[in-house]
Design goal:
The protein has 342 residues and is mainly α. The chain has one domain. Strands 1-2 form a two-stranded parallel ribbon. It is globular, with a radius of gyration of 29 Å. The termini are far apart.
């Protein structure tokens, strides 16, 4: 009879240090492979599929506090930026000897600097929205733009072209009303300021106003609508409240308040119906750039910022502009099969 031999590791014997040295065994007595560590959570959650634009924040990470914290971040820090630039403007105006007791002094004596600081303060809200989408709600940045995950540049350009045509028709309607009612040229009556005054103001308008208008769309028709969509599926409470906030942050009174509220409400509607901000941005940019360029031609680049009481006649042209834009863009989106769901 052979003497039993001691088996070493790997030969079916007991491993050095006892049975536990090999870890858990499978059903055949073979050491089982160690369990793989759990993968870390993804940095962002994908948006839910098949949802309209205002519900894209309803991701797996969606919690009640995320849209609340994000809204405080966007509006609060945006107000800080705007206030800070306003203080800088006030200091420069005081040092320049501007009569600060005159409420219109900044618009008449420092129009270009007033326009720059105001437009820049509003434009800075755009990166705030994108930061909040990415790092507070933890979803793709592009979901703030459209259901396809980014801006559809061709579609936005087409909407801007429609907006330009609608604005020109609106101007023609206003001008025809003033002439037929015996009021002369009305709001279009102005003195040419000359190229030396117009060109610097036009450059500021063309560079900053598109970002200012786009930032307002990302805040009011983008962030706020999707923040409300985090809590409820219907878009109407978010549409009404965001439009009221949009109206309150403008300085218009009387018919001007009505116009701004309806303008915001219609842009919410076209955003939901077209699945993104492109149409709203296109119209808003064209509308603002056109108004500021007219003011710059008269040497009054900051006059559109000096808002106040507005008669219904002044709202006639913009109202026609908005109706034409909606009447053309919504059927055009359907004809071109513009995606309205993620």
């Amino acid at each position: 009879m052979n003497e039993p031999t001691e088996r070493g590791p790997g030969e079916g014997g007991t491993p050095p240090g006892g049975a536990q040295a090999w870890g858990p065994m499978d059903a055949y007595g073979t050491p089982a492979a160690p369990a793989a560590p759990a993968p870390p959570p993804p940095p962002v959650d994908p948006v839910p599929g098949g949802e309209p634009y205002h519900l894209l924040a309803r991701t797996a990470r969606n919690r009640w506090w995320r849209p609340v914290v994000g809204t405080l971040f966007v509006l609060g820090l945006g107000a800080v930026f705007t206030l800070g630039l306003g203080i800088v403007l006030g200091i420069v105006a005081f040092a320049s000897g501007v009569d600060m007791s005159d409420p219109e002094a900044l618009y008449t004596e420092m129009p270009l600097l007033t326009l720059v600081t105001t437009a820049l303060g509003l434009a800075l809200a755009l990166p705030l929205v994108l930061f909040a989408v990415r790092f507070i709600q933890r979803r793709p940045v592009g979901s703030a733009s459209s259901v396809t995950g980014g801006l559809r540049w061709g579609w936005m350009a087409l909407c801007a072209a429609v907006g330009l045509g609608a604005m020109l028709v609106g101007w023609a309607v206003s001008l025809a009303y003033y002439l037929l009612s015996g009021q002369g040229l009305g709001e279009f009556e102005m003195d040419w300021a000359g190229w030396s005054a117009f060109l610097p103001a036009a450059a500021v308008v063309l560079v900053l106003i598109p970002f200012q208008a786009a930032a307002e769309e990302y805040v009011f028709r983008g962030w706020l609508m999707q923040a409300f969509g985090s809590f409820m599926r219907t878009p109407w409470p978010g549409a009404l409240i965001s439009s009221l906030i949009f109206m309150s942050l403008h300085g218009y009174r009387d018919w001007g308040m009505v116009w701004v509220f309806l303008f915001g409400l219609c842009l919410v509607w076209v955003t939901v119906r077209t699945g993104g901000l492109e149409a709203a941005i296109g119209l808003h940019v064209v509308h603002n750039v056109g108004g500021f360029l007219l003011a710059a031609a008269a040497g009054e680049a900051a006059t559109p910022l000096d808002q106040g009481s507005v008669s219904w006649e002044i709202m006639l042209g913009p109202g026609v502009e908005l109706l034409i834009f909606l009447a053309v863009v919504l059927p055009l989106a359907k004809k071109r099969n513009i995606a309205t769901r993620s």
